[in-house]
Amino acid sequence: MSRWRYIAAGIVINLCLGAVYAFSILIPPLEEEFNWKRIETSPAFTIALLTFALSMIPAGRLQDRKGPNVVVSIGGLLLGLGMILASYTNSLPWLYVSYGLLVGLGIGFSYGAPIATCSKWFPDRKGLATGLVVFGFGGGSIVFAPLWSSLIGAYGWRFTFLLTGILFMALTLPSAQVLRNPPKDYKPAGWVPKMTDAVKGVDFEPLKMIKSPIFPLLWFSYWFGTTAGLMVIGQAKLIAMELAGIESGAASLIVSVLGGFNAFGRIFWGFVGDRVGRERTLATIFLTCLAALLLISGLFSNQPLFTISMLLIGFCFGGFLAIYPALTSDYYGSRNLGVNYGVVFTAYGAGSVLGPIMASYFHDYQGSYLPAFYVSAALTIIAIILTLALSQIRRI
Q1: Can you give the pTM of this predicted structure?
Q2: Which domains does the chain have, with CATH numbers?
Q3: Among residues 6, 70, 178, 258, which is most buried (max CB within 10 A)?
Q4: Rounded distance, CA 233 to CA 355, Å?
């Protein structure tokens, strides 16, 4: 059977996981019903993403030992259960546990396994393969943002959570059964590998990876890159309405289109990374992101330019999610990719804390989201420097 079926299964799984990026659609009805503040509701998103990132380490170890189908099955059950329990929310702690902790665990157990599996099946097109799989994650908000908006308007937010949880289990559990790791020393027919450390058989254990000189450059640049993207994605509708004065319906549309740019960025940048080199591609992504952040900071009152800049940030964020798993495999081998990328992915968890909380803090206590964009621009400049250093060490 074709190896492309693993990518298809990975896309379906990630489509469900990526619904987390449409969280800004769920915030207004919760705040309206319970009179909660933004600084109180946004931690649910942060907890989900942080739990997602941290749980990838044990999930990655389990995937390397037991196989991807077992791990994703566990994740699908947790994901669906979390959404169903969130429909019974009457307090912030319940929301934090159901949507934050359980949904985050479900995503963490389901996300890394398809990436590692497809990276192993596609050593010849690693960037494209990972980009296609995580395309589903970026595309989740394209599907679920308008779906949730319609369901909330017609049936309320409780029914929306309940139906979504059932749908998640119906899609992820069958898809999980498709995933299998390739045989040891698998190579696609006709492929002649380049003589890199990974294909010569150098596979790093997590501790050895952490001690390598490349790791801190990789981790901190990933952290700073995801901070800007998660800041925008987590509160896209609210930022568009309050910073640029875009009306509610158009702001909801921006959330969906942003998801599209996020999704397409994963395929585009993954493909480019295979062609021109991943370090060079990563530097280009950071430069593009910096330009978009500076445009928003200076021209936020210009709605067309503001919208384009927001979409560019999503486009760049998608690139990070395609390039970093491929870089992890390039540098540290594919045998322990599940757990190794889980460790690298804690940088995403750090971004999920810094980005959304920073945006909420400036909104609630400074009266504007704008200072958060200034801070993100400064962090992106640091990330560019780290990426250039990464390229230099790679050549040694």
Answers
A1: 0.79
A2: 4-184+193-395 (1.20.1250.20)
A3: 258
A4: 10
- Give 64-69's long-range contacts (Cβ < 8 A, gap of 24+): 64/116, 64/335, 64/336, 64/337, 64/338, 64/339, 67/179, 67/180, 67/181, 68/113, 68/114, 68/116, 68/117, 68/176, 68/179, 68/180, 68/181, 69/176, 69/177, 69/178, 69/179, 69/180
What is d(CA 315, CA 309) in angstroms, rounded to the nearest whole number? 10
295 or 94, greater pLDDT: 94
Structure confidence at residue 198 (pLDDT): 42
